[in-house]
Design a protein that fits this description.
The chain is mostly beta strands and 439 residues long. It is built from three helices and 32 strands. The strands form nine sheets. It has a five-stranded antiparallel beta sheet, with no helix packed on it. Strands 3-28-25-24-23 form a five-stranded antiparallel beta sheet, with no helix packed on it. A four-stranded antiparallel beta sheet has the order 4-32-31-30, with no helix packed on it. The protein starts with a helix and ends with a strand.
């Protein structure tokens, strides 16, 4: 890129950043949460409005805010972009430290601008391409022991243990490792178990979940574009949940049309597969709500042709009315551009009674909405296997009151052996632990 072009692009960056408040949201995320969210008219933008706080990390002694009746503590710091968490049977906690591989080609000035603006938040920080193991110390309080567990991975995200085999979802393949209880390090190289769509990598994360009997692995694979603008040939086996047979290594598309399924979990009352999804951008601050939904085998959820059922996205050039006609309406909206990246169902935990049952969702936060949305962990109550009511904020305070500074951003969620909620924070490079406040 020549200096003249670079200066021109940076001028556009400044314009885009300054125009971030030109189109204010008219709906609060809570107003767009539930089974029937209001969906305003779509807008067209030469450049989408952008608002991203500057990533500054946590000051000494600073921490997120928690809802009344809760307390929060730091159990690990100094990590390299921690994204996902997984608790082993002996209570050790695995932390996948990673970010995108940086292989997506930048083909438009708009894409370049978006990347530059988002990276200033700290969300583009260098990932460790490793898994770190945390072990609780005998003494109460303070940070846990920290061990480098597996190195030389390729943008790892999901982790699952079946028997004595640990499966790790790199961005382009599932790899497996032999694991023995108590291990604090695995030095043997991983063995490739199943390939995954790994070219272009507009969405690089690969969520991973084992079936209760250990016979299947389910993988969330995001799209290679916002709405198919890179051509549908690069969307092969993308925007889907894959089902991988552990015995044969073979895979099939279990459900499709889910733009970016970033978290997969089993709902404990019904045993059904549920997912969180990041919906499409660039048609307004109030479009399109991200969602939480049951994932039906063989189901189609609209992407890229439509959203929330049969609402057609006119930006897609080659329409498919046959697919739109059978597009499933997601079960539960959680607000536009909140960017859910962590999902955890909890029947019983170390939090107060109101948080027993239901789903915890971490919202990584918006980049193209003013005011900001997301940047918090919420709880959604369930009754008879279905979400009810509005999301309740559990952990917040990840950005400054003036929305200019970003201290952290929540990603992966899990629950430790004592029932505490654990939160990976990739901007703050921290793992947080939430319990009931006993005082």
């Amino acid at each position: 890129m020549s200096n003249g072009v670079a200066r021109g692009v940076w001028a556009l960056v400044v314009v885009a950043a300054l125009s971030g408040c030109d189109e204010k949201a008219s709906l609060q995320p809570a107003q767009q949460s539930g089974t029937a969210p209001p969906l305003p008219k779509a807008h067209d933008f030469l450049l989408p409005p952008m608002q991203v706080p500057m990533g500054v990390g946590w000051a000494q002694g600073q921490s997120p805010k928690v809802a009344p009746g809760l307390k929060i503590e730091k159990i690990a710091s100094g990590l390299m972009h921690p994204r996902q968490l997984y608790v082993l049977p002996n209570g050790d906690v695995l932390v996948a430290e990673s970010n995108g591989p940086g292989t997506e080609p930048v083909t438009t000035p708009k894409q370049l601008i978006a990347n530059k603006v988002k990276n200033r938040s700290g969300k583009g920080g260098k990932g460790g391409n490793r898994i770190t193991l945390l072990r609780k110390k005998d003494a109460a309080g303070g940070e846990w022991e920290k061990h480098v567990f597996i190195e030389h991975l390729h943008s790892p995200f999901g982790m699952q243990l079946i028997g004595e085999t640990l499966y790790v979802a790199n961005t382009d393949a599932i790899v497996k490792f032999s694991y023995h209880s108590g291990d604090t390090e695995i030095t043997a190289p991983g063995i490739e178990f199943a390939d995954l769509p790994g070219t272009v990598n507009h969405h690089w994360t690969k969520a991973l979940l084992a079936s209760p009997d250990g016979s299947k692995l389910y993988v969330g694979v995001g799209s290679n574009s916002n709405v198919g603008e890179n051509g549908l040939e690069v969307e092969y086996r993308r925007a889907v949940v894959l089902e991988v047979d552990v015995a044969t290594h073979g895979s099939r598309i279990y459900a499709s049309g889910i733009r970016n399924p970033t978290g997969l979990q089993w709902e404990p009352q019904t045993g059904k597969l549920w997912a969180i999804a990041n919906e499409r951008d660039e048609i307004g601050a109030d479009l399109v709500p991200d969602y939480l939904t049951a994932v039906q085998e063989g189901g189609f959820y609209g992407w890229p042709y439509s959203y929330f059922g049969q609402i057609v996205d006119r930006r897609v050039e080659a329409q498919r009315p046959d697919l739109v006609a059978r597009a499933i309406v997601p079960d539960y909206a959680i607000g536009s551009h909140v960017a859910p990246l962590g999902l955890w169902f909890s029947e019983k935990n170390a939090l107060p009674e109101k948080y027993q049952g239901g789903a915890f969702i971490s919202e990584h936060g918006s980049w193209d909405r003013s005011p900001l949305s997301g940047y918090e962990v919420v709880h959604v109550a369930f009754q008879q296997g279905k979400p009810v009511g509005k999301p309740e904020t559990v952990v917040s305070g990840f950005y400054s009151a003036d929305e200019k500074k970003l201290f952290g951003a929540p990603v992966g969620l899990t629950q430790d052996q004592d029932g505490a909620l654990l939160i990976a924070d990739d901007v703050g490079n921290t793992v947080w632990r939430v319990t009931a406040d006993s005082h």
